[in-house]
Amino acid sequence: MPEPPPATQLTMITNQPGTLPSIHANNLTLKVSAVDLAIIFGHEEPPIGPAQLIARTIAAGVSIKPDVLVNMPWPTAKILCEFLVGVIKEYEAIAGPIKIPKQGRPTEEQFKGLVARIREQGLVE
Predict the structure, then answer these.
(1) Are 57 and 47 in contact (CB under 8 A)?
(2) Is residue 52, in this structure, part of any structural domain at all?
(3) Which whole-number Å values give the CA distances from 72 to 1, 23, 83, 113, in the listed order?
(4) Enclosing H/E stretch for 89
(5) 29: closest CA among 40, 44, 43, 45?
(6) Contacts (Cβ under 8 Å, ≥6 apart) of 61
(7) Among 12, 76, 95, 3, which Cα is nearest to 38's?
(8) How do residues 82-115 score in pLDDT, each as one tens digit?
(9) Would residue 80 count as lying in a domain?
C-alpha cells in the first residue's frame, strides 16, 4: 500500500478546461487567527449604485468585490510564501523587475494593524 502524501506538499496543477474555476484577482485581504491564515481574493469594480458596493469603497471610488476565500494553516502559508518568493525572483530574472504602483502597496498602518492582530491572537510575542 502506498504511503499517504505529507500533510503539506506543493503540487503543480495544470488547469484542464472546466475542472477548476478561474477568477481574476487584483485585490486581496488577509485575515489571521491562531490556527490559520485566510486570504480573500477579489477584484475592483466601479460602483454603479449603493447596492453594488459589495465589500468596501476605497478613496478612488472603487468597490472591491470578494470572489474567493482561501483558508490555510500557517505551515502551508509559509510554504506558499517561500514558493512565491522563488517564482517571482525567477520571473524577474527573465522579465525584469515587477513595478507596483504606490497605491497598490499596503500602507505602514495596514501592516502594523495586521501585526497587532497577529499579536492579539498570541502567535508572536
Answers:
(1) yes
(2) yes
(3) 28, 19, 15, 20
(4) helix 74-95
(5) 40
(6) 46, 47
(7) 76
(8) 999 999 999 999 999 998 877 767 788 887 887 7
(9) yes
